[in-house]
Amino acid sequence: MLNKKQPKQVNYDDFCDLNVIDINQHKSIITPEIAKSMLERNTKNFRKIKESSIRNYARDMESGNWSLSHQGISFDKDGVLHDGQNRLYACIKSGVPFETLVFKNCDGKLSFNVDVGPRRNVADWLRQNGYKNCTQLASALKLYYAVKHEKEPHSVRLTPNEQITILEENPRIVDFFNYCKILDGAVRPSCPAVVLYVSVMENGTPENIADDFVDTFYTGSMFGDPRFSLREAISYRRQKLRKMEVFPVKYELAMTIKCWNAFKAGVPLSKKQVNWNDRQQFPRIK
User: For the whole model, what pTM was predicted?
Assistant: First the structure.
């Protein structure tokens, strides 16, 4: 292991000199005990804690995905905590120390300039790293997680770090997603991309069968063909939606799985048969 110098572990009182006027920063390792001490100074922060953020941060800390950034823990000139309460609660929840910058002697109006911009998400990271169709690709990563863990897609809450880890462990999912982009309009590309990726890469289906499924999705499918039935069923259900409604992805995913399984088995499937509802068992990818 590299002999890397570790930042000094400090408590708030160890480094805060209230006589200093300028803002000072200190790189520190915050342990759960120090986090509790800092939260005792959270006396003027009337923002509610965000349980979902705390859970997400805690998972990143537990998995080792939390990393040092420019966004630190800040205190004003009176030693009152102004920014960082959710990260501190996450540290306590996870029981894992984390490295951060700590700022002291900040202006009391600091809160008005914090968290005022759009929140970054994994699509922004994908865009910065040269990927295309980043919002849909990010959705595919969450959908893959939902399939692998048998969860409702709408209930999946992943941190950007968790989504990036999925991508790093499954790099070819990008190839499948890009290939399925030609199906956009008939079906969300993320649905067939995840279905084909799992079937080919994890279930051992020959890749040429997946190629045929996509290449002739429009031109080679006719009445009775599962792909024709999928197109018709999704189109019909989308037309039935009220204004501003969106066809839930779990239905589209389930219908895509049924379509793929029938196509792979070489059996016909009607529009009625390809439909899926909550009373039915969620299909498994073959």
Answer: 0.69
Among candidate residues 80, 108, 136, the one where a domain is terminated: 108
DSSP bridge partners of 24? 104
4 assigned to some structural domain: no
Report the half-sphere exposure of 112 (CA within 13 A, side-chain side).
Answer: 3
Tokens 């048969």 correspond to 273
Cα angle, residue 246 at apex, residues 243 and 251 outer, rounded to 5°:
140
93 and 155 housed in the same domain:
no
Distance CA 138, CA 130 (A): 13
Order of strands, sheet of 98-106, starting from the edge strand that comes earlier in the sequence: 24-30, 98-106, 73-76, 81-83
What is the span of the domain harbouring residue 175? 122-274
Residues 216-266 pLDDT 10s: 998 876 788 999 999 999 999 988 887 778 889 999 999 999 999 999 999
